[in-house]
Amino acid sequence: MNLYYLIAAAPGEAPENAFGFWKAMEEGGPVAWSILAVLVIMSVGSFYILFTKWFEQRKVLNQYKGVRNQFWRAQSLKEGATKLEKNSAWRQIADDAIVAQEKHGKMTDQMEAHDYMHGSLQRSEDSINYALSGGLSFLASVGATAPFIGLLGTVIGIYRALINIGIEGSASIDKVAGPVGEALIMTAIGLLVAVPAVLAFNYLQSRNRRIAELLGSFSTDILAYISSDGAVKPSVNTAPAAKGTAKPAARPTTKPAGTAGGATASMKKT
Known about the structure:
This protein has 270 residues and is an all-alpha fold. Helices cover 82% and strands 0% of the residues. The chain has one domain (17-239).
């Protein structure tokens, strides 16, 4: 009868879990908590940089629409610059081009003047690209070092497990599971921190290359505009207006009249 009550009561008892995450961290002591804190800081910093840089890049790409739709429809660089958003990358290049154009007229050698204009716009591009790449080095560092920081926790956990085995004189599971569990947890956390950082770095870097390409095209168009005294502009922005005005003139309205006139004249002759 007593055996019956013991069997019936056994499933209702919840065994205490002595090998959970927090238990493993407590086994690791200050060293394990310090390594975990470093990995958490790395992870939070990586996601912060990912979202802030993504919104910054999105803003720059959206502002490029204003360059295509408004800037090149202006009659001069100064007028076009006023149509761009203040404190934007495109406004910075336009303002630097205006300043360089003013200094360009003071040079007597045309070759040196062209090189000066090109160098001024290139410096403006470089400063913008440098600002956009800020924080990406942190992502690269996290992706490269987080697995090794987790591995440090693994090495320390295994070392503690070996010490416990030596002290106890036997490799019992209750003496080894805690330190080894802590070691495996640190390795997993290190990988979980490193992989998103590497993916975020590559993603943001590809978007920066696209922005750098657009900035280079914009500065090249401005340089051509200045060198030609406004005669050269990107055709992609002026094409819609030209097509709209050319369509009415291209209608063959004179052909039927001419044909009818010719037919009338031939009938008169007969």
